[in-house]
Design a protein that fits this description.
This protein has 167 residues and is α/β, with parallel strands linked by helices. The protein has four helices and six strands. The chain has one domain. Strands 1-2-3-6 form a four-stranded parallel β-sheet. It has a two-stranded antiparallel ribbon with strand order 4-5. Strand 2, helix 3 and strand 3 form a beta-alpha-beta unit. 29% of the residues are buried.
Length: 167
Amino acid sequence: MDWVEYAWEESGPSLATRAGRETFAQHVEKISSLPFVDVLYIRCDWRNVQSRPRQLDLDPVWQLTLDAAKRKGLRVAFRIQLSNTSFQPEQVALPEFLRDRVPLVKIGKIPGKEPGEYREPRYDHPEFQKAFAELTDLLAARFEGDPLIEWMDLMQYGFWGEGHTSN
């Protein structure tokens, strides 16, 4: 069994980093130094890895995490998700360059969360399918065969990539 520690989660960096008490680099260094950690995990939105067509634009935490894993003999795993309730309903995790090409569908309100209609993209739309295939190809080109990578997860549908949209 492995112990997995989050370098980045769907709401962004650690609470201490968001509050300005530590930098991304300090956070990644701190968690990668824990003696029980085997895998550093990045769980982010699609918009955090691609901001334009045909190119990955990985958030800086990616390189910090990969460098720490290499120095400390750890591995890296990641999930790229399409949706989460941390930023909805104000914004979706879809990259900006796709927002005018892929229609969004209102899925309703979520009890106990911010008011407003939550939205999901049309997963069956040809532009979504084309862009998702491109993302998969870009990630494979960058990470396939990399000994630091423990697993890649592109479970796109639903909140957190968990295959559901609440109620």
